[in-house]
Design a protein that fits this description.
The protein contains 23 helices and 17 strands. By secondary structure, the chain is of the alpha+beta class. The protein folds into three domains: 122 residues, Pleckstrin-homology domain (PH domain)/Phosphotyrosine-binding domain (PTB) (PH-domain like, Roll), CATH 2.30.29; 319 residues, ABC transporter type 1, transmembrane domain (ABC transporter transmembrane region fold, Up-down Bundle); 243 residues, Rossmann fold (3-Layer(aba) Sandwich). The strands form four sheets. The chain has a six-stranded mixed β-sheet with strand order 13-14-15-10-16-17, sandwiched between helices. It has a four-stranded antiparallel β-sheet with strand order 1-2-3-4, with helices on one face. Helix 5 runs antiparallel to helix 6, helix 5 packs antiparallel against helix 14 and helix 13 runs antiparallel to helix 14. The protein is extended, with a radius of gyration of 36 Å. The two termini are 62 Å apart.
């Protein structure tokens, strides 16, 4: 396979096959490297000094080469670097460029330099080399996956890795998608349209009756008896219009609230289904802003349809017909300002609309910053950083103020200009119409009726031009909402999920490789087997991949390579909801909800009885301190369990896990926040509860793992040792060193 980057394009082919240039083929042949032996050849665009220069990384089955072309003194070849001499491969990132480095004899060597435009391809190359170093090259999908930063459809950059494309979302039509939300309420919408048409007809009645009143009653004095009837008819039309407005307002409110309720429900459902990696890249403040604030624009959309846009369209059509019916000449004078209005609306759309997205983006950043500051308020106060955080908030708030000011300045400049244009149109009619009245070409009543319709004609046109002001905000909000709704979960849902009926608790990893950034693996080719009922410890230095390992068992993420099996069934073939009924995780940082202690314990099993709650609390050694609370199990906790110590929160989270009675229990540093006495009591309880239950324990306190059936020692994403505590102590390897270090620290502390 021969690989080369695309030429000046965002497109990233699924398999970027390309022939090696003849000059490179000649160089390889001259060095005795046949073209058929080359597995990968990837072109770079920078020299080691950072100058634009074509370079090639060439990989064969035995070695790695770097070839520099177009040098003044000819080409330069670095290598071969035999694969069996390479200890590690990494990407060293700089500003605007990076290096592909090889570690040989404990030293890193710069193999080739490349710009950020080539970063995705060289990340895949590094992963390919990683596989070769562990003698695994059976994953050609590394080079076949879609580009995570480029839209497959329009080839434009995405806002974040694997995010939905904003341009393609707009092309699908926000209005069409919004109208699809109203499909369940089509009967209400139909009735609403009928009432809107009736209202438009009623709006056309008063000016026409005014013409009759002036010409036939007030001017001639011959039909004075019609005066009372005409006035009563005008009053009746106004009353009926008011009643229609009440019904239209109430019905549009009902539809609008139902649509926003449905949309918020769909967003919440989507947010609960999206995989955890989505929350790794999107701020919580931005999500909250979209769910609470942006959705309100869809309520405004219904009001605009019912009492704004469509009503004004119908009015313009109806009034235009009446204007041409009354006087053809004056009607054409009415149309004089229309071209200026069209040009102004186009200008508004292209100048003001981009400012709205900047404003809403600033609002999201402000919400995200505020959420971070308030969530970490104890840390802020502990380090006396209130002033610093206030300065940061003021800076972001200033950016939001400027963005809002740019929007408002555009609209406040736009509105007076339009008002002047509309007023100019009215003056033209006064002049032309008044002249015709004086010359006896039309009656005074006709002119008054015409002017009445004229005021009604320009008002909806003015409203329609201002509709673009609301539309820009709606499109921005809709774009941000559908960005969430269009986000696909990285966890594939099986079409025909398998069922876990009687879970025994066997766990097996088969050559599992995973990284939060797929080109920076945290777990590297891990294979292990945990038998049912075993208590297994996982130890290692911080950052070696222990927590990531249990995240994969819970299927918060899917591995890029390999399989994870529970009772010999791939967990990707099991529905997540069923999987997590049998696998319960106790996190290192316990999270308690703003609720009662009892409700926090029963969170995983709400139907539990009081006896079961107390039994679980006893097992987790938290029953005593719960009874000391003012309201016992009914004591309401503050944010994140405020009111309890760290150890107490941890024990309640353990009780919550035990109440679920899982087949597989995972304790991720669950003893880190409890004192030594409580730890011993919890271990005694767990010794009973873990019988016939598969238990995984991640611990820095190695004393908690002395009774474990099996201990896995991890380092840099790989398992380097395994065995029981006595066996590992006899080996005198990494585990032995960790135990001695902790023993020495304990002696010093004592």
């Amino acid at each position: 396979m021969f690989f080369s980057p695309p030429e000046m394009s965002f497109e990233f082919p699924p398999v970027f096959l390309r022939k090696i240039p003849p000059v490179l083929t000649e160089i390889l042949n001259h060095r005795g490297i046949p073209e058929a032996s080359v597995e990968v050849a990837l072109e770079s665009d920078l020299s080691h000094a950072g100058n634009p220069e074509p370079n090639w990384a060439v990989i064969t089955s035995e070695a790695v080469w770097a070839i520099r072309l177009n040098l003044p003194d000819g080409e330069k070849i670095e290598g071969p670097f035999p694969l069996d001499k390479i200890e590690k491969v990494r990407i060293f990132r700089g500003v605007g460029s990076s290096f592909l480095q090889l570690r040989i004899d404990h030293l890193y060597l710069d193999l080739i330099r490349f710009s950020n435009a080539r970063r995705e391809e060289f990340n895949r190359l590094r992963l390919y080399l990683d596989q070769k170093l562990i003698r695994r090259t059976d994953s050609p999908e590394i080079f076949q996956q879609k580009h995570p930063w480029i839209c497959e459809r329009c080839k434009l950059p995405l806002p974040s890795r694997n995010a939905s494309c904003l341009r393609c979302a707009r092309e699908r039509g926000l209005f069409v998608r919004t109208l699809s939300l109203m499909r369940p309420y089509s009967n209400y919408v139909g009735l609403l349209l009928v009432m809107m048409l009736m209202g438009v007809v009623l709006d056309l009645v008063p000016p026409y009756l005014t013409r009759i009143l002036v010409d036939d009653v007030l001017s001639s004095h011959s039909r004075a008896g019609l005066l009372a009837w005409l006035v009563l008819t005008l009053a009746g039309a106004s009353l009926l219009r008011a009643v229609l407005n009440i019904f239209i307002g109430r019905m549009s409110t009902v539809i609008g609230t139902k649509v926003t309720y449905e949309l918020r429900s769909r967003m919440h459902q989507k947010l609960s289904q999206i995989s955890v990696d989505f929350y790794d890249r999107v701020s919580l403040g931005s999500i909250i802003t979209r769910v609470l604030h942006d959705v309100d624009y869809f309520h405004g959309f219904v009001h605009q349809v019912a009492q704004g846009f469509f009503v004004n369209i119908f009015l313009v059509i109806g009034i235009g017909f009446m204007l041409f019916h009354l006087n053809l000449k004056l009607a054409f004078f009415v149309l004089i300002p229309i071209p200026f209005i069209i040009v102004g609306t186009w200008f508004f759309w292209h100048i003001i609309y981009p400012r709205y997205y900047r404003y809403w983006d600033s609002q999201s950043k402000l919400a995200a910053l505020l959420n971070g500051i308030l969530s970490g308020i104890r840390t802020v106060k502990a380090y006396a950083q209130e002033i610093r955080e206030h300065v940061r908030f003021k800076e972001v708030s200033l950016f939001s103020r400027q963005a809002r000011r740019h929007v408002e300045q555009g609209t406040t400049t736009f509105l007076p200009i339009f008002g002047f244009v509309f007023g100019l149109g009215g003056l033209i009619i006064w002049y032309a119409g008044g002249k015709d009245v004086l010359e006896g070409k039309i009656t005074l009543g006709t002119l008054m009726a015409f002017l009445g319709y004229l005021g009604m004609f320009y008002n909806p046109i003015s409203a329609l031009t201002m509709f673009s002001n609301w539309l820009t905000g709606f499109l921005t909000a809709g774009q941000r909402i559908f960005e969430i709704l269009d986000t696909s979960s990285s966890l594939k849902v099986p079409e025909h999920p398998l069922s876990l009926k009687a879970v025994r608790g066997k766990i097996e990893f088969k050559h599992v490789t995973f990284g939060y950034d797929p080109y920076q693996p945290v777990i590297k080719d891990v294979s292990l087997v945990i038998h049912p009922g075993q208590t297994v410890g996982i130890v290692g230095k911080s950052g070696c991949g222990k927590t990531t390992l249990v995240n994969l068992i819970c299927r918060f993420y899917d591995p890029q390579q390999g399989q994870i099996l529970i009772d010999d069934q791939d967990i990707q073939s099991i529905h997540n909801q069923e999987l997590r009924q049998h696998v319960v995780l106790v996190l290192q940082e316990p999270f308690l909800f703003r609720s009662t202690i009892a409700e926090n314990i029963t969170y995983g099993r709400p139907q539990s009885s009081a006896r079961q709650i107390i039994h679980a609390a006893h097992a987790a050694n938290c029953h005593r301190f719960i009874l000391k609370q003012a309201s016992g199990y009914d004591t309401r906790l503050g944010e994140r369990g405020a009111g309890l110590s760290g150890g107490e929160r941890q024990r309640i989270s353990i009780a919550r896990a035990l109440l679920c009675d899982p087949a597989i229990l995972i304790l991720d540093e669950a003893m880190s926040n409890v004192d030594t006495e409580s730890e011993q009591e919890i271990q005694q309880a767990l010794a009973v509860l873990t019988k016939d239950r598969t238990t995984l324990v991640i611990a820095h306190r190695l004393s908690t793992l002395k009774n474990a059936d099996l201990i896995y020692v991890m380092d840099e994403g790989r398992i380097i040792e395994q065995g029981s505590h006595p066996q590992l102590m006899e080996k005198k390897g990494q585990y032995y060193k960790l135990v001695n270090i902790q023993t020495d620290l304990t002696r010093i502390e004592n």
